[in-house]
Amino acid sequence: MRLSYPAKFWITFGLVFFAVVVIFVFGVIQDYRKLPEGSIRQFNRQYEPYEIGSLKIGWEMPWGPGDSTFAPYLKIPAPQKFYVSIAEPDIWCINGSCGIEGDFIQTMGGWLQVEDTYQSEVEPSFGLDLPENNNTRSMVIIGDRNGRIVGLYPNKVIKDILNILKNHPNLADFDVLFGVREFGKLKVGGLSPLKPGDQISQMSEELKKRLSVSRIPEDKKFYLYALEKRRYDIVGMYEPYENTYACILETGCRYPEPDPHHDFLFETMEELGGWFLANDQNNLAMIELFDLDPQEVLSGKSSLVVLTDSEGVILALHPNKTLSDTFTILSQHPKLVHIEKL
After folding, report:
1. What is the pTM for the complete model shown?
2. How many Å apart are CA 307 and CA 222, to the nearest integer?
3. Given 3.30.360, 3.40.50, 3.40.30, 1.10.490, which CATH number is that of 178-341?
4. How many CB atoms lie within 10 A of CB 59?
């Protein structure tokens, strides 16, 4: 039986349509891969291999939770929202010591560790010693909260990490880098409850003992006020001792963390021309002044960082942040301070 012209047309059309669908499935949909915890995202096959040597999507990452790290932590803490392991030449750091990229990752709840490829154990751990990777000089690995690999990025370095993390919105939430316009009675553009020149020694016994810091200095470019829980009761790597509230006239007051020898905020704040004040454990007056519940703050359930200009006008309000997020907060205000010079 001979087919009519319309029948031939529709059969041909159907075959062509089927071929297009097959090409689409194998050429596009295969680039979408299921990740640990069930999430799915598109992969760029040119830049993101599914596996490199012993590294494979879904497998355990090198330098993940519980693995060794630098002082004062010694072990990579868990849980974190995500983990980033990087191997590249001539750099060896964690979190904020890696620069603004580390500060951003820390603020987003992640952990960053960068290993120098000149260390003998690093190249094998990242698959850089394999013959097929002779032209691969560095590697970025993204892990989920359990340390399972969700992204492999050969020949990428720490400067690429923020763009890479935008491929992982289920892990890295960039919205948390920005503050809010209002918080209780506080508003951006309004005056802070504490301003340059204000007396502060009456707010707590700790401040009363520090005669050199009885008032907020009046000659700073900006001010940070932090309402937060003392993160470490005990500090010191080799001879642990009670974490004592510390004040330096030119830079501010807080509990050092996590170890006085590794707390560079005092020094850096002096370099930037700013000043900070965090509450001590008995400074309920300061917490209430900023419209927070003292018990919520001292238990760690809530926190707040307020950034003001030289006159005490509020520039930013960051709920659920602490002074550990200082450089992330300041990076949003390039006209006020130049973080890149650090």
Report:
1. 0.78
2. 7
3. 3.40.30
4. 13
